Amino acid sequence: MALLDFILAYFILKNVTKLTYPKLDVLSIVLSTIGFGGILYGSSIAGSRGWGDLEVLATLAIGAAALAVFIYRQLHLDQPILEFRVFRYPIFTLTTVIGMLCFSVFIAGATMLPIYMQTMLGFSPLKSGLMLLPGAIVMGVMSPITGRILIESARADSRSPVYRFCC
Fold it and tell me: Where do transmembrane segments lie in this chain (predicted)?
């Protein structure tokens, strides 16, 4: 099925942006891989070894240092891999942080609620999944609507960093 999707996408979908063929920045790719990988690995092994373990602290420190160098490099490149300059706009930074917090709360609830329903209330996995289904349906229906509202409100103020970032 995925192969059919790739074939259909190749022939049917059209590129809507201008191709620029930017230069591949290998150092940025290596730095981001070490940075994100170090933080992910350090966080993963902290559960079994504890946050005070030397390997946990070392991988987290190496990951954080690599990410700091990566961000510094991206801020000084003409064509960065990841555009961090949008965080200079306070409203963009604020809404991004709020979005991350809301998503974290959502994921925590979506993880803890089924565990609570199964262990404390005795629900089967099927019943606990069905209890979460209405919320998932509402999110699926509302996501494109809220996206359109965001884009339209950003277009109303073309100075908005959201407009510059999305459009």
Answer: 24-42, 54-72, 92-117, 129-151
